[in-house]
Automatic annotation (TrEMBL):
Pfam families: adh_short_C2
Family stated for the protein in its record: Belongs to the short-chain dehydrogenases/reductases (SDR) family.
PROSITE patterns on file: ADH_SHORT
GO biological process, one term: monocarboxylic acid metabolic process
Signal peptide feature range: none
Protein name: SDR family NAD(P)-dependent oxidoreductase
Length: 248
């Protein structure tokens, strides 16, 4: 991946940061996506201290004008991403009785519609020289039911459907489009569940490997799908869940 520019949205913490680090370690120049440029600075300093080539891509992915400005700034700096990792994910753990329609729509906008919007700008940036790789972060929630998580599950199912359709549409233009579906991963967004003894017991007894996944394990799958090693893989969702979806 030497010299290839990669945009990772939601890259300040968690899976996004791990993916950015994995891509950077493989030689990519990484654009770190995040809403606040100031909060991205310490992360940039950390990655640069590790010898990685990283720059800021400050934009709220739900605000088209901010996306336009961020893509324009990247282009002005000579950065045209050929790898896109759609990682932004908002979660609202409520069920149908309490997740009102406006909140459901807002979640879909942040997790699904925004990924589509970023993807369209990513493609437009290539002009007459198409080609690249798109990896979207899904979840086993896309195919497994869980009470009280209806909006997130709907968004992730939509992302996987979008990835398959984009793979079909963009393949002739030299793009590969895939998704990674993590299971239970030890990230900041799951901090409350990690200290919940009941849920931790569920992870232990319902996951074949009997443990939480680590962000780096998901990032390795992302980097593989984005790399030339996966040159004949498109339209695929790679499940990385420690065997959670294999048990019944």
């Amino acid at each position: 991946m030497d010299g290839v520019c990669a945009l990772v949205t939601g890259a300040r913490v968690g899976l996004g940061l791990a993916a950015a680090r994995a891509l950077g370690a493989r030689g990519a120049r990484v654009l770190l996506g995040g809403r606040d440029a100031g909060r991205l600075e310490p992360v940039l300093a950390l990655l640069r201290a590790e010898g990685l080539d990283a720059s800021s891509f400050a934009a709220d992915v739900t605000v088209p004008a901010e996306l336009d400005a961020a893509f324009a700034a990247a282009a002005a700096a000579g950065d045209v991403p050929r790898i896109l990792v759609n990682n932004v994910g908002v979660r609202d753990r409520r069920g149908v009785d309490t997740l009102h329609t406006a909140a459901f729509a807002a979640l879909l906008n942040a997790d699904l519609v925004a990924a589509y919007d970023v993807t369209r700008r990513f493609l437009a940036a290539h002009g007459e020289e198409p080609g690249g790789a798109i990896v979207t972060i899904s979840s086993i929630a896309a195919v497994r039911g869980r009470a009280g998580d209806v909006g997130y599950a709907a968004a992730k199912a939509g992302l996987e459907g979008m990835a398959r359709s984009l793979a079909s549409e963009l393949g002739p233009r030299g793009y590969r489009v895939n998704a990674v579906a993590p299971g239970s991963v030890a990230t900041e967004s799951n901090a409350d569940l990690m200290v919940d003894s009941r849920f931790s017991e569920v992870v232990r007894t319902r996951t074949a490997l009997q443990r939480w996944g680590q962000p780096e394990e998901i990032a390795a799958a992302v980097a593989f799908l984005a790399s030339p090693e996966a040159s004949y893989i498109t339209g695929h969702t790679l499940v990385v869940d420690g065997g959670l979806s294999t048990l019944f």
